[in-house]
Write a structure and sequence with these properties.
Length: 189
């Protein structure tokens, strides 16, 4: 059963990865770059400051730092426990069937750190700002899906890596949002 699931995952990866074209490669490389969305994060922090104040912003910054550290470390734990090679490593013998656009190819890919971090940030910020910006969470979730798809596009993650990363991101984002609410009630009042 697992072998069949991985086979479907590989086939879906090849299909989705091959939807790309050299015309769009540079755009997807920009989307997949970690520093591209620093301005978005700065805007979200500004909105949190504007709506909650300086003390609360400090709580949010600490909570987000803990959240990103948590998602990164759990992602690395999964990658080094499962040791599923990335598609660009050609362990599945598919390198000649894919478009490898990324600048580098890490060793293991299960599950995607980009997907988990972007979704955790989307859920956290979307929930924290939901009372003020009703539709922001939906925009951030779409943004997270785009970041996640970029990892398939550039050839470094299978769809299952992405789905599991997004799922873990939802759980982490919600968990740390709840932690931030507890800390705000306890220390900011």
């Amino acid at each position: 059963m697992i072998d069949q699931l991985l086979q479907y995952d590989t086939e879906l990866f090849i299909f989705l990865n091959n939807l790309g074209s050299s015309t769009w490669d540079q755009l997807w490389l920009i989307i997949t770059a970690k520093k591209t969305f620093v301005p978005l994060y700065a805007i979200l922090l500004f909105l949190l400051y504007k709506k909650y104040g300086l003390k609360a912003l400090l709580v949010f910054v600490i909570t987000v730092a803990l959240m990103i550290t948590f998602t990164d470390q759990i992602t690395n734990l999964f990658k080094h426990s499962f040791k599923r090679p990335r598609p660009c490593r050609d362990a599945a013998g598919i390198f000649d069937q894919i478009r490898f656009v990324a600048q580098r190819c890490g060793r293991y890919g299960f599950f995607s750190g980009h997907s988990s971090n972007s979704m955790a940030a989307a859920i956290f910020a979307g929930l924290a700002l939901k009372a003020y910006y009703k539709y922001l969470i939906y925009i951030l979730i779409v943004w997270s899906f785009i970041v996640a798809y970029s990892r398939i596009y550039v050839g470094v993650h299978y769809p299952l890596d992405i789905v599991c990363g997004l799922t873990f991101g939802v759980i982490s984002g919600y968990m740390f949002y709840k932690l931030s609410q507890y800390l705000l009630k306890r220390f900011v009042k």
